[in-house]
Amino acid sequence: MADTAISATIQVALETVISLSADRVSLVLGFREELKRICNTAETIRGILAHADGKMHIPGMKNWLKQLEGELFEVENVLDELNYETLRREVKYRNKLKKKVCFFFSYFNTIGSRSRLASKIREINRNLERINQEANNFGVVSQFHIEASLPAASGATASRQTDSIRVPNVGRVDDESKIVDMLSSPSEKVLSVIPITGPGGLGKTTLAKSVYNNPKIDGHFGQKIWVCVAKEHIKIMELFKLILVQLTREEVKVDNREVIVKEIGEKLKGKKYFLVLDDVWNHDQGLWSDYFNTLMGLNETKGSWCLLTTRLKPVADVVCTHLKMNSGPYFLGKLSGDECWSIIKGKVMSAGEEVPEELEALKKQILGRCDGLPLAASLIGGLLLNNRREKWHSIVQESLLDECQSEIDQILKVSFDHLSPASVKKCFAYCSIFPKDTELKQDLLIELWMAEGFVQPDRQNQRLMEEIGGDYLRILLQNSLLEKVEEYWRTYYKMHDLVHDFAKSILNPKGSSQDGYLALDSSKGLAENTTRTIPASIHTLFLHLEGGVSTDMLLRFKCLHVLRLYGDDVKFLPSSIGKLLHLRLLDISYSGIRSLPESLCKLYNLQTLTMRDYALEGGFPKRMSDLISLRHLNYYHDDAKLKMPAQMGRLTCLQTLRFFNVSQEKGRGIEELGTLKYLKGSLEIRNLGLVKGKEAAKQAKLFEKPDLSRLVFKWESGDRESDNRDEDVLEGLQPHPNLQRLEIRYFMGNKFPQWFMNLSKLETLRIRKCKRCSELPSLGQLPSLKILYLEGLDNIRFIGDEFYGITANEEEEEEEGRSRASGSISRRRKFFPALEVLYVEYMENLVEWKDADQVRSTVADVFPMLRNLSIEGCPQLTALPCSCKILDVGNCGNLTSIKMGYGTASIEQLSIGYCDNLRELPDLDLFGSSLQHLTIVGCPRLISLGVNGQKCPLPCLVKLSIVECDGLTAISDKMFQSCRSLRSLSVECCPNLVSFSLNLQETPSLERFILDNCPKLIPHSFKGFAFATSLRELRINSPFSSDDSSVDDFDWSGLRSASTLRELRLRGLPHTESLPHQLQYLTTLTSLTLHNFGGIRVLPDWIGNLVSLETLELWDCDKLQSLPPEAAMRRLTKLTCVDVLDCPLLRQRYTPQRGIYLEEEISSDPASSESEEEESTTMN
Prior knowledge:
The chain has 1180 residues and is of the alpha/beta class. The protein is built from 32 helices and 43 strands.
């Protein structure tokens, strides 16, 4: 393993040497010939390495590799030093520090310096040529073809052979059944394929064996063939020979294709056959096209199948595409924890034997280690079987990995050996520098790979290094060496624990002459003297120090390419940072550093600088524009007054710049953005009021930046004079059509530019606080727009045709459409064809919005994909424009009714809040079976809900909440007929509600029922608690405010039968003198709250019957003086919290540890004060 890793390291180093020696350092006078010799020798050695992997057993070969690695390390440093000086000369030339610049470096102005470097380079050449000559001793010859330098993967996989003998197939019964059904179904194709794909160790081969040996298969096929491929660069003749061997059971001695394929044809003639190709790696389309075309030509009988297993999705895609399969690859997922546990139990125990306690105690740790991989489960189970039970715990804790890693390593090594180019191997190993389970971000990984030289510039200068790094990442994903995790708001990558261990063994191999990478990370930090043991040759250092970083410490690591500093104790970056000439990535985002030294600007090789957002207190260093190689400035600050580095336009490699504050100072104007042609991702441009006009704005050349995906344009906030300059500036800021997200803030023009209509890829648009804007842009024709925010547009009074993008000609067509409705169908257009979310907020003067139904009824479909509509703070609006799946309306004071037109039957969530003049809702019948959530808050003039004399079927309603509707008098009981999906019902603060009844037999799924501050309701309106088989929480804080007879009328017997009830909250009146005695039978309660039972003096003994009680809350019980007796309280063995609030006469308190005690004892007993404080924290 170490030899393979070293070989990959050497190949990457050779690529770096060749790149540096052939690049601009070759311009240095006096060194051209020597550099050319280095380049030529490196090319020769690179060819030699193509044969070296197969000759590791030759004595001296490993030592040769070690010598070569050490020499290449020295070459890299020297050439990188030359490269640094090239960059320094460029900076000095550009800064015009000298009137006359000679074509050599100031660094070489002294004879001694020139002589020293010249001597080093000559010595390097001699050593490399000697190493090259020594290769002849091992019988290794050079190949100059670049691809030949990659390690031959076929040898690594040739040793892995599989057979068709069936083995136990735990956890894959469903997969087996699905595939067998597919194979057994009639097919009109001569040959079909099912590629099973997934990471190594998932059991693809085991599944294929189970399918191959399934008895149902035998009756469908006249011939079964099992072929283990297990080679990457397999040739078609090898594949045909493998088939023929299986058909004849004899060695194939001929090499004539014609003879071989004809014999295969004879054996398969007239038969349907089932062919398994196991462990396939080659995704060459030409190979598979030739292979399958030949097989189909040999035997035209319909219904044959090929089952193929592969780790690589490209292989699966190629074979599916060629055979025109509609179903696509069969992706094999991980096993569940229970399935892995079954494998382990099957290994460790006999059939019927109970799980030993020792094994059960380790279950969580073991399953975490397996992570759904059946191979891992099998290996761990085997390891435990072969050791005594008393050793199991220590094995899992200490030696589990070492014992079972060998077989998993074999699987992983196959994937590793197939990685190409060699740089991908280094990228893979480098991922293990992070702790296990780290969520790896794509940009950070690629930036680190570039800094280490694993990703080299494109020789033809057609692709950025970041693009090449993205390809490398995809290769690792395709080989299942990294896992991609996609969540709603982010995407990251993870490495399985077992893969991480394997990668770690490669990162700094034992046989290597260099320790290149080290992460010293501790939550407590490390003392600086710990760093003295770190090799000075280290390339990557992740360091968490306590006490800061000293000048001397940094100077010990002059070879660093990557430095990440952690810890709030690290508050200053020493000026010696400028001496790290090779540094390419500096990350101080997890430190306490708040300022950057000026010497940082001497890091001419620096590609990535990452700081904690908002951290800089003194601004950027003055000479930051000297960082000529900077590609990524990962820093954000929302202060528009923060000065940008002067002359940022000189950073022509810059790709990541999250914000730019325009200034009137020289070198800080918007024109600095013009030369930054590689900018990508997100950019926020502020202080646009300082830009003088359209021509000045055009100098930013945003239209020429296709990789910018998000732009934010911000003018200064607050009232400003309105003139045409804002409009001119925005016109000049026209972005590239590739833009996906755009936000505009504080723009004070009257209208928006026409270039909005050209943003064909725009997905999100936010227009915020543009107070003088009187016309909205025409957005209805944007094909990709999914999310639209309109906020604080105070001057917009009417939204009409211009918003939809309807022209005058189309208006005429509308008139014609009304008279010729049948003829208009073919000409119907779509406005906002992709819009899913529409937010309209705080548009105080918006009076009218052209109804979507008006447009829809003529020549167009409007908002066909709209899912979420939110209208907030539009007090003048009297009608809604449309409906959708999720409708949220709030603070629209003039809205009197919710008009529902087209699409009403598809509404799933309706939320209405604080619409003071809303008097009615649409008939609930209109919602059909779609409505799931209905929330009404703060609508004082709403009188009734669902009262229309008819049944209101809402079979899908899950949640109903009605709050603070002062005028509401009636809720129809018809709303709840057959409302079998309702899970949450809340009616609160409706003081005039008198008509509302509920039979819980109609709502069997109800889990939460809250009735609070509705004093005019009576408790016998609610029946059927015995049928509430899902009820867990009940809060009835109103019915018990009447006389005692109304309490007795409540359905206590039904409630007693509600075995699922866990939380109960009751509210009484100040004169209530006793608790409802029926409470004592609710023995399943875990939480009981008694609120405002003002006449109660003593809690009854039967409280002790509530044996499941965990929490007891007593609030606003003015006369309560005593808890139940100690004996009753002691029966509450699960009680952990007694919360007393505003019960002035109750001095007793209770904890399980002390029982009942007086409140004063907490402070009067000093010895117990500390423990009481801890108890109080726990109990409350």
